[in-house]
Structures are given as structure tokens and as C-alpha cells.
Amino acid sequence: MAEDGSREIEKSLLHRHTEKHFTAGEIVRDIIIGVSDGLTVPFALAAGLSGANASSSIILTAGIAEVAAGAISMGLGGYLAAKSEADHYMRELKREEEEIITVPDTEAAEVAEILEEYGIEPHEYRPVVNALRKNPQAWLDFMMKFELGLEKPDPRRALQSAFTIAIAYILGGLVPLLPYMFIPIARKAVVASVILTLLALLVFGFAKGYFTGSKPFRSALQTALIGAIASAAAFGMAKAVQG
């Protein structure tokens, strides 16, 4: 009865306490990959073509083509990466399942070793080991998570990653091209593109730092600096080749 009462108190405390953890890490990672490349690559391309004295229409056409190709390439890369992770998980799951059946004592010893690493004494972890041996599915889940460090992937993850990265790339890639849509003179358009893109990089870098737990202002400056270096290098190389 005392144990039941204690358990009810624990449930009540858990019900009243809601932990505010950020759980959309994979989506944010995909957005960061897509937007960072989308802002930087078309930005450098537009700056390079501007340095070669190309017209705004040519720069815009080339930029849109690059954004389309880049979005497809980046999205496909995200899909293949997520699919590879899922395939790796399934291979390890099958192997671990076979080992629990064929060498249960060895796997039980591995459970004990894992628990020992957390400072749990033998008399404390033996009941846990025995309980897991009676529940093969829980045992398998435990080994996947704590021995191999693998989380079960979302079956929709591959497609979700592909679309997220591709859309983020398109949104990021359109930013440096916007001035070329409205300013026919490339020399003027490139100035507006630089200002607009650097502002976007600062905002994006700040948001990236905020969501990833790093220093937002430092992240903003680093992101803008990388974009500025890329565009300056492309512009300078175009000028050097032309000259």
C-alpha cells in the first residue's frame, strides 16, 4: 500500500511538471542546412556574374537555374542520408535481436556493464537485468539505445528531410536574387543583393545560434562573415578572369 501511495505521488508530480525541451532538432538541422547553402551559393554565383559584367537578366536566369538544381541536389542528399540512417538502424536491430536469442548471457553481461557505467551497484542492477531478460522487446530497445546509441528513426524522416532541405534552400536562394528581379543594372543590383543577403545571413545566423544553444550574436556574425567571404571570392575571381 505504501508503494502504491508513493507511486501515485510520483505520477501526480510528473503530471504537474512539464519539461520544456526543444524536440525539433532534426527539422531545425535540415532548415539550417538548406537555408545556409541557399543563401550562400546563389549569393556567390550572382556576385561572381556581376563581377563579370553580366546583365541582371542573365544573372537572374543563372541564379534561378542554380537554385532549382541546388534544391533538387540538396533534397536528394537529405533523403539518401536519412534513408541510410534508417537502413543502418534496421541492420543493427536485426543483429542485436539475433544476439539476444543466441547469446543471451553475453547480452545480459553487456546490460550489467552499461548500468555499472552509471554507478549502479551489482545488487541494484541484477533485478533490472533479470527483468529485461523476461521482456525481450524492452531488452532489445535497451540495447539499441544504451549500447549502440541508436534511436528508432521516423519512417517519414527521409521524405520529410528531403522536402525540408529543398524548400529551405529555395527560400534562402531567392533572397540574393530578389534585387536582380527589380533592378536591371547589375552593378546596382549587386549592391542591393549584398546588403539584403548580409542582413538575411545575420538574422539567420542569430536564429541558428538561438535554436542550437550557441551564442546568437556570435553565430550571426560568423554566418554573415562566411557569406561575405564567399561572395567576395567569387566576385574577385570573376574580375581576375575577365581582366
Supply database-style keywords.
transmembrane helix; Ccc1_fam; Vacuolar iron transporter; metal ion binding; mainly alpha; 243 residues; manganese ion transmembrane transporter activity
Mean pLDDT: 82
Q: How far apart lie the N and C ends?
A: 88 Å
Order of helices and strands: HHHHHHHHHH
| Amount of helix | over 70%
Task: Describe the protein.
The protein has 243 residues and is mostly helical. Helices cover 84% and strands 0% of the residues. The protein is built from 10 helices and no strands. α2 runs parallel beside α7 (157-174), α2 (25-51) packs parallel to α10 (216-242) and α3 (56-102) packs across α6 (136-147). The radius of gyration is 26 Å and the shape is elongated. It catalyses: Fe(2+)(in) = Fe(2+)(out).
What is the strand and helix layout of this fold?
Blueprint: H1 2-16, H2 25-51, H3 56-102, H4 104-117, H5 122-133, H6 136-147, H7 157-174, H8 178-182, H9 186-212, H10 216-242
Helix pairs in contact: 2-3, 2-7, 2-9, 2-10, 3-4, 3-6, 3-7, 4-5, 4-6, 9-10
Summarize this structure briefly.
The chain is mainly α. Helices cover 84% and strands 0% of the residues. Helix 3 (56-102) packs across helix 4 (104-117), helix 3 packs antiparallel against helix 7 and helix 9 runs antiparallel to helix 10 (216-242).
